[in-house]
Amino acid sequence: MIYKDRTKPIPERVEHLLGLMTLEEKAGQLVQPFGWQTYEHINGEIRLTEAFKKQIEQAGVGSLYGVLRADPWTGVTLESGLSPREGAEAVNTIQRYAIENSRLGIPILIGEECSHGHMAIGATVFPVPLSLGSTWNVDLYREMCRAVGRETRSQGGAVTYSPVLDVVRDPRWGRTEECFGEDAHLISEMAVASVEGLQGEKLDGEDSVAATLKHFVGYGSSEGGRNAGPVHMGRRELLEVDLLPFRKAVEAGAASIMPAYNEIDGVPCTTNQELLEDVLRNEWGFDGMVITDCGAIDMLASGHDVAADGRDAAVQAIRAGIDMEMSGEMFGKHLVEAVHAGQLEEEVLDRAVRRVLTLKFRLGLFESPYADPDRAEQVIGSAEHVELARKLAGEGIVLLKNEGVLPLAPGAGKIAVIGPNADVGYNQLGDYTSPQPRDKVTTVLGGIRTKLADTPEQVLYAPGCRIKGDSREGFEFALSTAEQADTVVMVVGGSSARDFGEGSIDLKTGASKVTGNSESDMDCGEGIDRLSLSLSGVQLELIQEIHKLGKPLVVVYINGRPIAEPWIDEHADAILEAWYPGQEGGHAVADILFGDVNPSGRLTVSIPKHVGQLPVYYNGKRSRGKRYLEADSQPRYPFGFGLSYTEFTYDKLSVSSDSIHKNEEVQVRVEVKNTGQRAGAEVVQLYVTDVASTVTRPGKELKGFRKVFLQPGEAQTVEFTVGPEQLQYIGANYEPVVEPGEFQVHVGKHVNELLSANFIVRED
């Protein structure tokens, strides 16, 4: 059989297999049921359901979504879920049945969520992408993606539905935490690193998984920050901003892509043929697989209302360029009937099947469909990956304010750790996280206690309140605890933890109270969009009451979107933005609080003074205006901002030529020196301004960055290359253009603190 002959070229194998398939078998390859519904896990034994067996025997299944996923949505818990070994064994059971009990023995594509770690019990939980972006450390992130690929593939997962490449325009959006930030250039750098890390040198490698770029496109610019809302965006902005990270990732070899739920100018992305065929495949040369988001085809007939019914929706989607339906039923129900009824040409169906089969061959699934349970047990949650998670969390924490109280001295007296996020591990993991054993997650309280293990009496704790709700029951105990301390560390923020059934928190002792009516503190995550960027519940009131005690006050935010609280900005002695720092977040926060790690995180989203300033992203057009009646339009903390325990100075900015041809390059150099007393890392940022252009431009655009580590007194010359790629924009005819004229380059600490130099670009 040619398709089973590994010595034959993949296109030849695909065409041979396609020619053997019935219409029903072809449609079956485009179907992706929920993976956790294919088996039962009883007393350590994996049993396939009769419904799944029947589906395999009738027409086959192309893919499964979330075989290894566990969370309240799936109904899979720590108790009923799969260990690393059991997960690999479950995948093997599924694959073996599919191969041995279907006519052609086609292996199943196992797809898993991995935006900040393999979403399985026992897998390493890294910081969320918003934190990863704040590291500005592309190499470290690439290393993390290699680890994620290793853990996922070891259990049999072959495709990951990451990275998320959406450009955040309104941080009220609940999925802000899943994104790298508001700048397309920075996202592009992370996008390329993600593809390189996840996919490795070859897709059929034992540590490689296919990356799925999402959400294509404009998803981060929805109306009002509401999830999947309409996007009002011109073609030029779409080409120049939102499509840029996707194009860069496609050029890096991404194997899969996922259209967004939203519509752009009235056309849902799921059926946008211009995007899926004209741009993605014809212009960019993408040759991978396109898979919908969950339920996106249903939305065409019930939500967008551009389809009369399910069959119409399925036909529209596959015609537009969709190859597989994620976890829906439209393709399975309607495609075969549509072909028989003359509503869909079989060659359109064949086109989609061909792409699915090609990805399976590229992943080596026909040769190696099974996982190695021993290896899964060895690599998942390994000590090496845990250490990497701690390092990433430390580099992603941003020091927003410090009035000399940080770092804390170990012998500086008693520390009261107070707040609803001080000792609730799930609250620091973020959305798209499986439940993890409590001893695997180090909270901020746990991290501080570890630092001061020799003097445990030095650490006091009170939760004070919940994330949400108006109960002040815990205030009295929190205040009495703070009164005994020399320094107060308030750990507040938000939660993207779905209700894991853990019960409520005893606000007097911090102990877990298991009840039948557990409350959810979730105020961020997918589908959780907000009117405000303030702290939920009575958290601010708790901080204000404790501030009255006159103790040094350190605020640590654990959250998934920027927080705008002017009172805290004014009154706290120090503020750390830790985002959702993952399972090692407590250690990472403690490392920074006590000065073992010098903070080097920098903001990738601008933080406003007030929600009414939105949109406040740094690279808006120069015509956007300067102020409102009540205040100016500048953010509280600008893009690229972040403090350190040392000082960095910039000097000797130079441009290699004051005049270049539009096809030439200049070298931009600057000297950066650590003038403080501690070793530390500085993120050197390069921005470009087109002084006058035919089409309006932002005032500044990030075009390069370097993270440099310097010892006290050490200086380093940092160099950037600025050429056509950094100078071009989408011109009047919607094509990239470098216009002659004056340009400025800016280099410095953040977008509002820069050295500048000018040069001229010539036409001839």
TrEMBL record:
One GO BP annotation is: glucan catabolic process
* Molecular function per GO: beta-glucosidase activity
SUPFAM superfamilies, per the entry:
(Trans)glycosidases, Beta-D-glucan exohydrolase, C-terminal domain
Domain Fibronectin type III-like per the UniProt entry, residue ranges = 682-751
What family does this belong to? Belongs to the glycosyl hydrolase 3 family.
Q: Which PANTHER family match?
A: BETA-XYLOSIDASE (PTHR30620:SF123), PERIPLASMIC BETA-GLUCOSIDASE-RELATED (PTHR30620)
Protein name according to UniProt: Beta-glucosidase
Q: Which organism is it from?
A: Paenibacillus antibioticophila
- Taxonomic classification: Bacteria, Bacillati, Bacillota, Bacilli, Bacillales
